[in-house]
Amino acid sequence: MNGRLLFAALLLAALAGPALATDCPALLQGELPKLRAKESIDLCERFAGKPLLIVNTASHCGFAPQFKGLEALYKRYRAQGLEVLGVPSNDFKQEAADSSETAKICYVNYGVTFTMTEPQKVTGDEAIPLFKDLAEQSSAPRWNFYKYVVDRQGKVVASFSSLTKPDSDSLRAALEQAIASKP
What is the pLDDT of residue 105? Predict the structure, then answer.
């Protein structure tokens, strides 16, 4: 009987693996290198089933002070499941050439505790898959600090230009809608 139970457990585990992979939305397929760390972020493992705010950032952009507001949003809503993902990019020629400088600006100058990646391409044909999917669901970033609110199913519920401040009522309303969505 023990052999049958072991076989059944192994069979269930084998069948559950592919089922879990299909539960991950296309938007979250893949990995990105974490800023100034040796590990990568498995987007599906880290963010699947969670409401998410994704922002393309740039350390030397005039909108960089928005890091403080993004951190405040993260602290305000993280107990409700919200995750924030910052993706630095030099697509608009305002990101530091050295990721250690990017990290210092984010972590030291602005006190960022939400997840940040190494700089990535976020526009055009060379955009990473995450941003290609965001662009297909909404629109490509037109500048730094473009914000995407994603629900628990991996669907963009709203996007906001760089001019939209993190404390805006419309951004908070979209985040609350994403938080309220069912996994």
Answer: 97
